[in-house]
Design brief:
The complex is a heterodimer of chains A (about 220) and B (about 220). Chain A has about 220 residues and is mostly helical. In chain A, α1 packs across α6 and α3 packs parallel to α7. The longest helix of chain A is centred in the middle third of the chain and has 30 residues. The radius of gyration of chain B is 17 Å and the shape is globular. Chain B has one domain: 3-Layer(aba) Sandwich (Rossmann fold). Chain B has five helices and eight strands. Chain B is an alpha/beta fold. In chain B, α2 packs across α3, α2 runs parallel beside α4 and α3 crosses α4. The chains are: A mainly alpha (about 220), B alpha/beta (about 220). At the A-B interface, α1, α4 and α5 of A face β5 and α2 of B. Chain B: Belongs to the ABC transporter superfamily. Chain B: It holds the Pfam family ABC_tran. Chain B: It is an enzyme of class 3 (hydrolase). Chain B: This is Heme ABC exporter ATP-binding protein CcmA.
Chain lengths: ~220, ~220
């Protein structure tokens, strides 16, 4: 337990010192959200209708941004060898690294999403819906990305391959996330139905990722 | 204090492959606690591969590695979890300080965070003591990006001290070290052996320890 807590603190400290992680993701998120109104025009009704989808796509792309460093830097500088000889199972190490990564990249996106939603003319219930679905959905995105990151860890240009691997896997999360966020703003579908499906997907990703990513790391790091 | 039974590293019929090609095959040797084994051989003879197999980082194609007697607290621990692996890479993050690294290493590599000495090897040092030992006490709070190659190597060496593990697997441990630091390394290895630990080191030069046995790997055609 002490070892996992130390690893969590180590990763958070690293993210803070490098300064990239969260801030870059949030700025990228902001860029994507501001660019869309310029592309589709200043039609407020249209923007508020597609707003949840814009926020979700922006969150997905921002999540992908830092993922190649999740295991990549540890592989390059030899830290991964240390983690593999640690007395802690690699599955738990992966889970803790994902948690630390989500805290520094996913959580900031959730926190700023209501503010950015205002820029897309979303009403109150929709803002809440987007924030709630992102809070539940971004851990799934981080987890799916971690599997991709583990698979591409030994590839020099893995950062380019990673989105190609991860985006198809993220489609179900996107579908239920956006439909729940949109349902929060009104419509015929109740909010709870797609939201529970999203929760289920996230739980599945949380349960499966440590094993899948650890197996991929063992395989590719040899 | 009674001395525990001496450690034995037993390797039988070990074979390894890299990229589908055999690196070494049918390798058998044994080493006992207090002994240092110098792995020598030309470039590409498989020294690093052997160390990575011993550390459990590479799966052997055949054979087995055992470290007896088993760990008192965790009898099922694989050899890799009872070994320090010091590879070519120092495993340091440029943005973090030596102290950050050693605190994390003490928690991750040490067993249960306890300060008690397991069989083989001296008791673990605190991160500050370890840094003083490698003469880096003054640089404890500097980011690793500002350290020289030799200083970075010394931080990696200090990691051997903060967690007590009976088997040291060292791959070219003296790379980038100046003469004074090489003497410190020799002192660390002597202390480890004197406390009943085991060292397997891949080197091109002499280890500088009395009673080092040599394990020669030949490059296979």
């Amino acid at each position: 337990m002490g070892a996992l807590w130390a690893l969590f603190r180590h990763d958070l400290r690293l993210a803070r010192r490098i300064g990239g992680g969260g801030t870059t993701g949030v700025v990228f998120f902001l860029c994507l959200v501001t660019v869309v109104p310029f592309a589709v025009g200043p039609d407020l009704n249209l923007l508020s209708r597609i707003g949840p989808a814009i926020l979700w796509i922006a969150a997905l792309l921002s999540t992908l941004l830092g993922l190649d460093r999740l295991f990549g830097s540890d592989h390059e500088d030899g830290s991964l060898d240390l983690l593999r000889t640690a007395g802690t199972p690699l599955e738990l190490v992966v889970a803790v690294k994902c948690l630390a990564h989500w805290c520094t990249t996913g959580l900031p996106l959730v926190l700023v999403s209501p503010v950015f939603g205002l820029m897309l003319a979303l009403d109150g219930p929709s803002l809440g819906g987007v924030a709630a679905t992102l809070l539940v959905g971004t851990p799934a995105l981080t987890c799916l990305g971690a599997i991709g990151a583990a698979l591409t860890v030994s590839l020099r240009r893995g950062g380019l391959l990673l989105p190609v691997l991860v985006i198809p896997l993220a489609i179900p999360v996107l579908i239920f996330g956006v439909s729940a966020a949109a349902a929060a703003g009104g419509g015929t579908v109740p909010f709870v139905t797609p939201f529970l499906a999203l929760c289920g997907l996230t739980l599945l990703a949380l349960a499966g990722t440590p094993f899948a990513a650890a197996a991929a790391l063992r395989l590719t790091a040899e | 204090m009674t001395r525990p039974a001496p450690l034995t590293l037993a390797v039988a019929g070990l074979a390894a492959e890299r990229g589908g090609r055999s690196v070494f095959a049918d390798l058998s040797f044994a080493a006992r606690g207090g002994e240092a084994l110098g792995v020598v051989g030309r470039n590409g003879a498989g020294k690093s591969t052997l160390l990575r197999v011993l550390a459990g980082l590479l799966r052997p194609a055949a054979g087995r590695v055992a470290l007896d007697p088993p760990d008192a607290r965790d009898p099922d621990a694989p050899v890799g979890e009872r070994a320090h692996y010091l590879g070519h890479l120092d495993a340091l993050k440029p943005a973090l300080t030596p102290l950050d690294h050693l605190e994390a290493a003490a928690a991750l590599l040490g067993r249960g965070g306890g300060r008690g000495a397991p069989s083989g090897g001296p008791a673990p040092a605190t991160p500050d003591e370890a840094l003083d030992r490698v003469a880096l006490g003054h640089a404890a709070d500097l980011p690793c990006a500002t350290l020289s190659a030799g200083q970075r190597r010394r931080v990696a060496l200090a990691r051997l001290l903060v967690a007590a593990r009976p088997l040291w697997l060292l791959d070219e441990p003296s790379t980038a070290l100046d003469l004074g630091s090489q003497a410190v390394l020799r002192g660390m290895m002597r202390d480890h052996l004197a406390a009943g630990g085991l060292i397997v080191a891949a080197t091109h030069g002499p280890l500088g320890l009395d009673g080092t046995r040599e394990l020669r790997l030949e490059r296979r055609a």
